[in-house]
Design goal:
Elements: H1 9-26, H2 32-64, H3 71-92
């Protein structure tokens, strides 16, 4: 009967570490400026639809003389659109 050799955990860990080191050399980490740019893009992707919702809601409220009847839902719709756009952009990166 042939016995399986015991698994060498140290050798496996060394191979995984070497593989991670090769992967890091092939795809370096983005710079701080690139990360700040990504954060800025994400911020504007969320903020711009909210601001547009505010403007459109206020125009509709002023035209209908309705207080904040249209502004509040427009803000939430803008936030939903902005968060969806940011989520899609992050999944593409």
């Amino acid at each position: 009967m042939v016995r399986d050799r015991p698994k060498d955990h140290v050798a496996d860990a060394a191979q995984r570490a070497a593989l991670r080191a090769r992967m890091c050399q092939d795809t370096p980490e983005p710079s701080v400026a690139a990360r700040l740019g990504q954060i800025g893009i994400l911020g504007w992707l969320v903020v711009m639809p909210i601001l547009i919702g505010i403007v459109l809601g206020r125009l509709a409220d002023r035209a209908a003389d309705s207080g904040i009847f249209f502004s509040a839902p427009a803000i939430f719709i803008g936030a939903g659109i902005g968060l969806h756009a940011a989520w899609k952009w992050m999944n593409r990166q």
